[in-house]
Design brief:
This protein has helices at residues 4-25, 30-49, 60-83, 86-95, 97-109, 116-138, 142-169, 172-197, 204-228, 233-240, 243-253, 261-278. By secondary structure, the protein is mainly alpha-helical.
Length: 280
């Protein structure tokens, strides 16, 4: 199922993911921050490529497809945060992914969590989705819902693509380096155009914020791809999406978003799901 080391690696990645998403949400220059995150991916990818083999031809269809999907994900994420609060859109976009990934991994590779692990996936997904229920019915805009669900579909797609692609590449480092290069180029191009269109200019604070977010994003996703090499993708996805708990706490404490009751209750459900996945 999943080792203790892999379990805590993915949880650490989830925390980093929630933090860099909060950096995007908390700035008025969102497109510039996403541009810098893409630039950080490009730089990290180039550096890592010197320490890894060139990916085999079998991995390239996954790399190309994943680059397209990652670009769509960043675009939908950017628009989600322009419209909705972090505690509204983040749980929704991350909550739909584990179920979609589990179904996709079963259809494509016959890979399915069993026993308590499957129950853990269900509980985590339910707890994450519950975080969005209040705002879904009492305040979140329909545009934010659409963008969030599209981002969630992208998350599920690239989770599957990168899981299978890394296995085809044989080494996680080889796949990660070229994925970062390709998606970095795409993100830099897309979000520089958006930033110029919006008349945004770079400043020191935005630069630091974006590069810090990009560094955390690189480390978090590199960890996740490494674990995907040997762990069922549905379990990895479910653990990774617990970032919504960290994200909700950030929204609650830093951005002072409300209500808090659903967040606490959902956090308990997700924690129980985590325990089930961690059990041998």
């Amino acid at each position: 199922m999943i080792t203790s080391a892999a379990f805590f690696i993915v949880l650490g990645a989830a925390l980093l993911h929630a933090i860099w998403n909060s950096l995007v949400k908390g700035t008025s220059k969102k497109s510039l921050v996403v541009f810098l995150i893409g630039l950080a991916h490009l730089i990290f990818g180039i550096v890592l490529s010197f320490f890894s083999a060139f990916p085999p031809i079998e991995a390239w269809p996954y790399l190309i497809a994943s680059t397209v999907v990652h670009s769509g994900y960043l675009f939908f994420l950017y628009n989600s945060y322009k419209i909705g609060d972090m505690s509204e859109v983040y749980p929704l976009m991350r909550g739909v992914a584990p179920v979609l990934v589990t179904i996709g991994a079963f259809i494509v590779a016959g890979e399915l969590p069993v026993g308590l692990s499957m129950l853990g996936v269900i509980l985590i997904s339910f707890g994450i989705m519950l975080l969005s229920i209040y705002n879904f019915f009492f305040g979140i805009s329909y545009k934010a819902v659409i963008f969030s669900l599209m981002a969630g579909a992208c998350i599920a797609s690239y989770t599957l693509l990168d899981g299978f692609g890394a296995r085809e590449a044989k080494t996680a480092l080889s796949y990660i380096s070229w994925l970062f290069i390709l998606e970095g180029i795409a993100a830099v191009f897309i979000f520089w155009i958006i930033s110029k269109k919006n008349g945004l200019t770079m400043d020191k604070g935005t630069f630091i914020q974006g590069m810090l977010g990009g560094t955390m994003s690189c480390i978090a996703y590199a960890f996740v791809i490494y674990v995907k090499m040997t762990t069922p993708l549905g379990i990895v996805s479910s653990l990774r999406e617990t970032s919504v708990i960290f994200g909700s706490l950030i929204g609650l404490i830093v951005f002072r978003e409300r209500p808090w009751h659903f967040r606490i209750f959902s956090a308990i459900i997700v924690t129980i799901g985590l325990i089930f996945i961690a059990l041998p």
